[in-house]
């Protein structure tokens, strides 16, 4: 039977079947829920070994191509792409930990990750100890318990721009056969590749720099492929014990790649935060220009940070690219192509000045996002960190006049002109308020 002889409804769904092949230079977007099996044995083989593609939640060629691309950029063995950065973080945690287990985390982390650990994973029986002094290996060592299954931190942390001493912290983890998971979102693999310094797993919000265009959400978990069943098996029974129905253990089937194989087989597809192949394609397109963007963004950020630190309205600038930053020397060991483009600065005029600033900028966009080609600004004290106490905010470097910037790829002269204009308004408002508070309020 040929499709031409079938009815209208049948033709509608079958006429476009099997488009044939053409050599597309870009990875085609396999926007399909599933894949046709060649024959009976092909289907059985796919379900038996997981090889090939059957259903997009468990694997898709477009998604797979982007996974290989991002694994290559981080110097990892393999990667699993998921629907958001949050999905990547939870996938990483649930790959290494379960009920009764414990995680040691830096306290200088993304608020969404903190909420995940405090609210959601706690309810699943995974407890977290947070440490403030992340530069002190002893602080990490002291927090480790027999049931600790992961150390977690960000390579560059918001809001203080702390740099993680990846080698020192992963060395502490190695003593206990506990993997270090690094959220490398703010740094990107263009600036630092944590796996090269001893971390075991890297996670990203691909919504940020990896995509770069600010058009999609995505996340990725990348593994070093160095799981050692002999040394670390006691901390990972789910990887070294036989599976349901007598299936050989994940470690027996996947060796050093056991962790990422478990994430791909058992965590990501079951919890189901699968990426759309269209979003995967857009992340892959973005990642092609990652180096060019981050190079330009870092240069722009350094100029903006220097300019701000010389301005009277500015009390402090927390950018690790400045020689005055406490982690500047440490950054020389880890960051080789720049210092990133996300940092905070604090206005002397406090909350009022911050309000004037975010409402006055025009080249900068006022929104909650980072790593975009456009420059962005947000006031953390009343947004991302609003539910924290003032003391907690102070520890994190978030004060009433603190603003977070994510510097884009614009001409830096236009960014400085925008800042100059808005800070002169901030200056005038402050002077005026100091001299005539009553008259100002009445007007
Ligand atoms: C944005 C972000 C996340 C969460 O990523 P989403 O893609 O928004 O889910 C996690 N970690 C860091 C450091 C982030 O900036």
What would you note in describing this structure?
The longest helix is centred in the last third of the chain and has 24 residues, at 412-435. Strand 5 (180-183), helix 8 (188-191) and strand 6 form a beta-alpha-beta unit. Helix 16 crosses helix 18. This protein is an alpha/beta fold and 443 residues long. The chain has two domains: 55-287, 3-Layer(aba) Sandwich (Aspartate Aminotransferase, domain 2), CATH 3.40.640.10; 290-435, Aspartate Aminotransferase, domain 1 (Alpha-Beta Complex), CATH 3.90.1150. Helices cover 43% and strands 13% of the residues. It is globular and about 85 Å long. It binds pyridoxal-5'-phosphate (PLP). Residues 84-86, 89, 110, 112-113, 154, 183, 185-186, 205, 207-208, 217, 219, 370 line the site of pyridoxal-5'-phosphate.
SSE diagram, text form:
Layout: H1 8-14, H2 40-49, H3 61-74, E1 78-82, H4 85-96, E2 102-106, H5 111-123, E3 127-131, H6 137-143, E4 148-154, H7 166-175, E5 180-183, H8 188-191, E6 201-205, E7 219-223, H9 229-232, H10 237-240, H11 250-254, H12 258-271, H13 277-287, H14 290-309, E8 314-318, H15 328-334, E9 342-347, H16 350-360, E10 365-366, E11 376-378, H17 390-396, E12 402-406, H18 412-435, H19 437-442
Helix pairs in contact: 3-13, 4-12, 6-7, 14-18, 16-18
The site of pyridoxal-5'-phosphate has 17 residues, from helix 4 and helix 5.
């Amino acid at each position: 039977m040929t499709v031409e002889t079938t009815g209208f409804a049948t033709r509608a769904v079958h006429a476009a079947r099997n488009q044939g092949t053409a050599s597309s230079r870009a990875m085609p977007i396999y926007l399909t829920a599933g894949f046709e099996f060649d024959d009976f044995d092909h289907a059985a083989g796919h379900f038996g070994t997981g090889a090939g593609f059957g259903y997009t939640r468990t694997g898709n060629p477009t998604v797979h191509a982007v996974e290989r691309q991002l694994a290559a950029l981080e110097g990892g063995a393999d990667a699993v792409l998921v629907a958001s950065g949050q999905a990547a973080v939870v996938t990483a945690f649930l790959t290494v930990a379960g009920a009764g287990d414990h995680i040691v985390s830096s306290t200088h982390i993304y608020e969404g990750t903190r909420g995940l650990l405090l609210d959601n994973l706690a309810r699943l029986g995974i407890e977290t100890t947070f440490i403030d002094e992340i530069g002190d290996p002893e602080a990490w060592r002291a927090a480790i318990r027999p049931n600790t299954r992961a150390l977690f931190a960000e390579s560059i942390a918001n809001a203080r721009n702390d740099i993680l001493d990846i080698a020192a912290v992963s060395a502490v983890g190695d003593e206990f056969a506990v993997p270090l998971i690094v959220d490398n979102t703010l740094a990107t693999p263009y600036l630092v590749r944590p796996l090269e310094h001893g971390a075991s797993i890297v996670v990203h919000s691909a919504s940020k720099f990896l995509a770069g265009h600010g058009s999609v959400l995505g996340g990725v978990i990348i593994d070093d492929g160095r799981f050692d069943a002999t040394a670390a098996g006691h901390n990972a029974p789910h990887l070294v014990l036989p599976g349901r129905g007598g299936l050989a253990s994940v470690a027996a089937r996947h060796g050093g790649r056991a962790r990422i194989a478990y994430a791909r087989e058992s965590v990501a597809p079951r919890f189901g935060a699968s990426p759309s192949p269209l979003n995967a394609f857009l992340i892959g397109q973005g990642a092609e220009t990652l180096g060019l963007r981050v190079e330009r963004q870092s240069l722009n950020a350094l100029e903006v940070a220097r300019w701000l630190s010389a301005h009277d309205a500015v009390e402090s600038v927390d950018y690790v690219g400045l020689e005055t930053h406490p982690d500047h020397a440490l950054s020389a060991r880890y960051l080789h192509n720049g210092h990133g483009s996300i940092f905070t600065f604090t206005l002397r005029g406090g909350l009022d000045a911050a309000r004037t600033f975010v409402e006055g900028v025009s080249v900068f966009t006022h929104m909650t996002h980072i790593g975009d080609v456009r420059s962005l600004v947000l006031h953390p004290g009343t947004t991302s960190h609003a539910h924290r106490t003032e003391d907690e905010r102070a520890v994190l470097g978030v004060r009433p006049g603190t603003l977070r910037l994510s510097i884009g790829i614009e001409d830096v002269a236009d960014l400085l002109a925008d800042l100059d204009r808005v800070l002169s308004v901030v200056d005038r408002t402050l002077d005026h308020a100091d001299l005539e508070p009553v008259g100002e309020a009445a007007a």
